[in-house]
Amino acid sequence: MELAAQIVGALGIASTIIIYQQKKRSRLLIFKLISDILWGVHYVLLGAYTAAAICIVAILREIVSMNREKHRWARHNFWPVILIIMAVGSSAITWHGAISILPAVASVVSMISFWIGSPRLTRRLVFINSGAMITYDVLVLSYTGIVNELFALTSAIIGIIRLDIRKSGGGRSENVKPPVANGKAV
Description:
mainly alpha
């Protein structure tokens, strides 16, 4: 079962790399949904039931988020509250000591970042999410989980540089306009 878990985790890694390279929220959410399904299966195979339960909550989160622009029911502000309660509740139900807090923290941070709907913010908050999950993955011996979080962090950094910093000018000197007084550069 451990080999199967690591194989499914490898597929999860591939989907995670793609997530943070998306410009559009809709595509980001599709790849996040695929990733959460794969990671849910991975954690079930490892017997890491807190993370598996959190993945189920995350799947529901992605379904709600994907429907926010199309359906009124998905726009209600009670969804983040319900999903956060479900994440914390699933952590409590599958409690296996303090380790069970880590996936809940990652889920709450992820929930907030995806609900706000800004790929730019999502790329930044991944540092908190991945920090909690790397710690969890080390403790449950999810080798592909550790690699996945390292790839997620790397992909987020690349996305920040490629989509946020370079696109906006990011303070690069060639994009800074000189001060102007009376129509002439000072």
